[in-house]
Design brief:
Layout (H helix, E strand, L loop, with lengths): L2 H10 L12 H11 L2 E11 L5 E12 L3 E8 L3 E6 L2 E6 L4 E6 H5 L3 H6 L8 E9 L2 E8 L6 E9 L2 E9 L4 E11 L17 E4 L1
Parallel strand pairs: 6-12
Antiparallel strand pairs: 1-2, 1-11, 2-3, 3-4, 4-5, 5-6, 7-8, 8-9, 9-10, 10-11
């Protein structure tokens, strides 16, 4: 599986929409845990190296259903899937015909996935701080309290009560910018969309 996509997917896994009109980014994030049970959106993900040069750009769709169920479908130019049924996470690389299976707790941990999908006790594992608004968006910065989390910082931006962007910087200085569009809050989702059946003939890797 493409390592850049895989690492970013595990870092992101699930996101959602929330905010109050007068709230700052930190309050938007806290409101998220109380207000959103499901989400559907399109996304565009761009990865930059330490010198700011673009090294990858991919598009896809994502679904979220709390607690800890999510689905990321990367459609162009790489066809890949990350699907969590709430207990296990399946990373399927269609081109390589390879599936990696991990438990949800190992994927979430203190990663940005925990920041967004883990629950209301986010401040136990992350230091949250408000940033100045940018382009009319409210922003919150999250830094992991553990040094071995694999990333330095995540910046989440809300625009008119909806999650608009995420920026992640990993431990090596590589950054990822994700822009969300056509965001739907609390849509009716079929739970079957979060189930994954391992295709015959593919290689299966696990921890």
């Amino acid at each position: 599986m493409n390592k850049v996509i895989t690492n970013v997917l595990l870092a992101i896994c699930s996101v959602c929409v929330i905010s109050t009109a007068l709230a700052d980014g930190v309050e938007d994030l806290k409101q998220f845990y109380q207000s959103t049970q499901a989400m559907r959106a399109n996304f565009k993900q761009t990865v930059f190296d330490q010198k700011g040069r673009k090294v990858q750009e991919v598009n896809g769709t994502m679904l979220l259903q709390r607690p800890n169920k999510f689905r990321w479908d990367y459609q162009k130019p790489y066809e890949q899937q990350i699907i969590s049924d709430g207990k296990q996470v399946f990373l399927f690389d269609v081109d390589l015909q390879q599936v990696t299976v991990r438990t949800v707790d190992k994927v979430l941990g203190t990663s940005p996935a925990a920041l967004l999908a883990g629950g209301p006790n986010v401040e136990e594992t992350f230091r949250l701080s408000r940033l100045l608004d940018f382009d009319g968006m409210q922003r919150v910065q999250a830094k992991p309290k553990q040094k071995d989390s694999g990333f330095q910082v995540v910046i989440i931006s809300f625009d008119h009560s909806k999650l608009a962007e995420m920026r992640l910087v990993d431990a090596f200085g590589q950054s990822t910018h994700i822009v969300f569009s056509n965001v739907e809050v609390n849509p009716s989702l079929n739970t079957n969309q979060f189930l994954f059946s391992i295709p015959k003939g593919v290689d299966v890797l696990g921890e």
